[in-house]
Automatic annotation (TrEMBL):
GO terms of biological process kind: regulation of DNA-templated transcription
Keyword Membrane belongs to the record: no
Name listed for the protein in its UniProt record: AraC-like ligand binding domain-containing protein
The organism of origin for this protein: Pedobacter hartonius
One Pfam family matching this protein: AraC_binding
Length: 147
């Protein structure tokens, strides 16, 4: 049986694919920098994002909304006061089950580490970027300090 092709998307290709492939459609976000922070309410994901890999790290802090985030073989029910750590090597998918979303996400392209080389190894081996530990639940007060 042939394995399905799972795309490995750069920030730019993720943006392009999101505009042309219905299962990957997300609101446009620019890849103007190797490090960027965006508001989730301004950059909404569609209800469903098909399995894919990205060429960048993503940290997502959720303050409103919910859904199922699959990272590798691990499924997480994401809800407010959670942070997800997504490593570029992991296959991920998203299924939203809420109309409204809020919080923030941070995209970090590996090029960023060319400027701060000591961080590359730390990020690559950071425990929360492992699929089985990729989601951390905060209490409301902790979440408010981040927001």
């Amino acid at each position: 049986m042939k394995k399905p092709d799972i795309p490995r998307l750069s920030i730019e290709k993720f943006q392009e694919a999101g505009m042309n492939i219905p299962l990957l459609q997300v609101e446009h976000y620019h890849a103007e920098a190797s490090f960027s922070i965006k508001n989730r309410s301004c950059h909404l994901a569609n209800d469903y994002i098909a399995p894919n890999r990205r060429k960048f790290y993503k940290l997502m802090h959720v303050t409103a909304g919910s859904g199922i985030l699959t990272i590798g073989l691990n499924r997480y029910h994401i809800r407010p006061y959670m942070i997800a750590f997504i490593h570029p090597d992991e296959i991920i998918s998203w299924q939203s089950d809420a109309a409204a979303e809020d919080g923030h996400f941070c995209l970090i392209h590996p090029v960023y580490f060319e400027e701060v080389t000591h961080m590359a190894g730390l990020f690559k081996n950071y425990p929360y970027f492992q699929a089985e530990k990729a989601v951390v639940e905060l209490d409301e007060q902790q979440s408010l300090k981040i927001a």
